[in-house]
Design a protein that fits this description.
Largest sheet: 2 strands, antiparallel
Low-confidence stretches: 1-8
Shape: globular
Order of helices and strands: EHHEHHHH
Mean pLDDT: 83
Oligomer: single chain
Strand content: under 5%
Strand order of the largest sheet: 1-2
Number of helices: 6
Number of strands: 2
Number of domains: 1
Helix content: 25-40%
Distance between the termini: 34 Å
């Protein structure tokens, strides 16, 4: 784990999404609950807990020619229901994508299939 004084609005979180989404993600991510732990390396660099040197590394993801750096884990607590209520559907969906990388498996599961997206 990487220690960080404040990972709110962390560029590592913004780098998880294509640049054209920054006008949407930046204001949302800047308001996330504070954490003192920085996101763990991108998924393409961490492999999995069952990785061994004989297995191939994960490929870098690519979205419309960009290579987002999706964190293996984030440590931000979940935002409040009040915060979420002020977001539109796209903003909530982008936040759900981010929280699928949360260190808490229950948080990841809730964000894999949020009920509001069917």
């Amino acid at each position: 784990m990487n220690d960080a004084p404040d990972a709110r609005g962390d560029p590592a979180l913004l780098a998880a999404f294509p640049r054209h989404l920054a006008p949407i993600t930046a204001p949302i991510f800047a308001e996330l609950p504070e954490t003192c732990l920085a996101p763990i390396e991108p998924i393409a660099r961490t492999g999995s807990r069952w990785s061994d040197p004989a297995r191939p590394v994960w490929p870098d993801p690519s979205v419309e020619g960009e290579k987002p750096r999706i964190p293996y884990r984030i440590y931000n607590p979940e935002p409040s229901e009040t915060f979420l209520a002020d977001l539109d559907v796209l903003e909530r969906l982008l936040l759900a994508c981010l929280y699928t990388r949360n260190h808490d498996g229950f948080v990841r599961q809730r964000n894999l299939a949020p009920s509001e997206f069917g």
